[in-house]
TrEMBL record:
One of its GO terms (molecular function) is nicotinate dehydrogenase activity. It comes from bioreactor metagenome. This is Nicotinate dehydrogenase medium molybdopterin subunit. Keywords: Oxidoreductase. Its EC number is 1.17.1.5. Residues 1-200 form the Aldehyde oxidase/xanthine dehydrogenase second molybdopterin binding domain. InterPro entries: AldOxase/xan_DH_MoCoBD2, AldOxase/xan_DH_Mopterin-bd_sf, N-heterocyclic_Hydroxylase. The lineage of its organism: unclassified sequences, metagenomes, ecological metagenomes. Signal peptide: none annotated.
Length: 269
């Protein structure tokens, strides 16, 4: 969110301080769901930053008795093309506004989305299945995601890579079993997580040409959408390698060996 504000106000994001929301003091809101935090909240932040930008220019015009059209905000300062003597930082403008006008420089915004732009992705998995042990090794992975304009590309890539790790675990290892006494898997010694060392180099390609009309700078969303394709891609690759049709997750070694034994038995018959 700081990057959105920084872009609108043309200031370093390190100069922006954001507090955590507190429901004791914030207005009532029905929530932001379906991976749309950046799409909805980011747009609200964007609108508020635009409103603040306008308020800054209005206040500068009032203090310097100039027309707003002749002022510009760049590099964290207000400047005037017609008067080089007008050069005041946003910080100093806020102080001067309080001293001379007795008013803070503030702005607020509300946003309610009217659309819910679709996001798409296609994932490719390259696997190696050991037919002796039933163990599946990930050799390569490519994730292509259409998320509109990425606000923080590095964070988007990291989120997708994390989703791939989670999806690989769901596809190949992680299994929750319930015993007859009602106790479920309760130890990581039996619930086998997919570790970072088990992963290949996960390549990520972000498509940004299909931008949304409402999201900040055309952003859409990235969340569950990058997790959903992983297990189908990995399991499809395993089935392709085996020439099989396994359909129950996870494709753990025991399941693969059992399937292969059944296939051999059918062929022998």
């Amino acid at each position: 969110m700081r990057m959105i504000i920084a872009e609108v106000l043309d200031i370093p994001d390190a100069d922006i301080y954001l507090t955590e929301a507190d429901t004791a003091v914030t207005p009532v809101d029905y929530g932001c769901f379906a991976s749309r935090t950046t799409f909805v909240l980011g747009r609200t932040i964007y609108d508020a930053a635009l409103a603040l930008r306008g308020e800054i220019l209005d206040r500068a015009a009032e203090l310097f008795s100039l027309k707003r059209d002749g002022l510009r905000l760049e590099g964290g300062a207000i400047r005037c093309a017609e008067d080089e003597g007008v050069n005041i930082t946003i910080r100093k403008l806020a102080h001067t506004s309080m001293q001379k006008l007795g008013r803070n420089v503030t702005a607020q915004a509300q946003f309610t989305n009217t659309t819910n732009p679709g996001v798409t992705g296609v994932h490719f998995a390259h696997v190696e299945v050991d037919t002796w042990t039933g163990f599946t090794k990930m050799l390569g992975y490519l994730a292509v995601q259409d998320i509109g304009q990425p606000i923080n590309p590095a964070m988007c890539e990291a989120q997708i890579q994390g989703a791939v790790q989670m999806g690989c675990g769901a596809a190949l290892r992680e299994k929750m079993t319930i015993a007859k006494n009602g106790r479920c898997t309760e130890s990581l010694s039996k619930y086998h997580l997919f570790l970072a060392t088990d992963l290949p180099d996960i390549q990520v390609i972000l498509l940004s040409d299909g931008r949304s009309g409402e999201g900040p700078f055309g952003a859409k969303s990235i969340g569950e959408v990058c997790y959903v394709p992983v297990a189908p891609a990995v399991c499809g690759a395993v089935n392709d390698a085996l020439g099989g049709s396994l359909g129950t997750l996870p494709f753990e070694p025991d399941s693969i060996l059992k399937y292969m034994a059944e296939e051999r038995g059918e062929r022998e018959e």
